[in-house]
Amino acid sequence: MVIAANSRVESLAKSGIHEIPKEYIRTQHELTTITNIFEAKEDQQGPQVPTIDLKDINSNDPKIREKCIDELIKAATEWGVMHLVNHGISNDLINRVKAAGENFFDQPVEEKEKHCNDIASGKIQGYGSKLANNACGQLEWEDYFFHLVYPEEKRDLTIWPSTPSDYIPATSEYAIQIRSLTTTVLAALSLGLGLEEGRLEKEVGGKDELIVQLKINYYPKCPQPELALGVEAHTDVSALTFILHNMVPGLQLFYGGQWITAKCVPDSIIMHIGDTIEILSNGKYKSILHRALVNKEKVRISWAVFCEPPKEKIILKPLPETVSEEKPPLFPPRTFQQHMEHKLFRKNNDTVDPK
């Protein structure tokens, strides 16, 4: 059976193929590092992604609050990724968000195509199978749904699914609560740089300009998971990224020279520090390289919320307070748009940027 490589990955997965198209097969170097994700999940040896309990992040007791903030700062400095528990977003709302996304992807591909995007014409929001060009030209074993969710006045609800009926209410409320959590985390990270609590939020756009976007990643079962990646290795360009998933393992982080599999921690939200905060902190906070593996047994779904500065209004560069003779700036000044182009399309070859 010949299947076009530009089919939806879900259609490929359900077509009965036993071998994936060559466009999905990773480079030889990558193939040597791809493991069985279920075996990797059971491996208790080696480093583990830290779990940060936010229960005391707003405590009235300064010492208790400081201890919580210090633990978050330590994880952001050493790892750049963490499981957040007691984050303040109810399990009921999270379950509604997951159910809405799962129900959308449970629909026939023909229904989902009514929401398709068109990258070539600049319509990046909607249902698709490849978010952006990558450096090596290979395809990733995922479909997705991508759209802006906050601020409310910048949303285009014509793109949002009307089926299931709870998609818009649940996703809207979740975006509001994630936006509030972003303020809390950025305040703690500001303190870790010796800055006023509101400084980092101001530097990434403040209350009005910070953009929040949702990408629901749908990773179908893969007949040859040892040859494919759901998402190739990358760092996020965002300020912060928050991730939910359906408790199927798949996320791996490159830490200490090896790929570490993130455990599935109940009732947690995974948080990544993005490039934007790494740049502003002059490298103190780490934007960690990560990727998604696939498997042949279970569909994996994740909900990634990207909190991003406006594309052109802010020049991203290390804050003056993070620069000294001993710590010169590690990153050249760029707008967020220029940084995205540099990362995604390799439009220039600055020597300063270690990425």
Automatic annotation (TrEMBL):
Fe2OG dioxygenase domain mapped to chain residues: 210-309
Pfam families: 2OG-FeII_Oxy, DIOX_N
UniProt keyword Transmembrane present: no
PROSITE patterns, alphabetized: FE2OG_OXY
Gene Ontology biological process terms, A to Z: flavonoid biosynthetic process; pigment biosynthetic process
Coiled-coil annotated residue ranges, if any: none
Cofactor(s) recorded in Swiss-Prot or TrEMBL: L-ascorbate
GO molecular function: dioxygenase activity; L-ascorbic acid binding; metal ion binding; oxidoreductase activity, acting on paired donors, with incorporation or reduction of molecular oxygen
Keywords noted in UniProt: Dioxygenase, Flavonoid biosynthesis, Iron, Metal-binding, Oxidoreductase, Vitamin C
Family to which the UniProt record says this protein belongs: Belongs to the iron/ascorbate-dependent oxidoreductase family.
Record protein name field: Anthocyanidin synthase
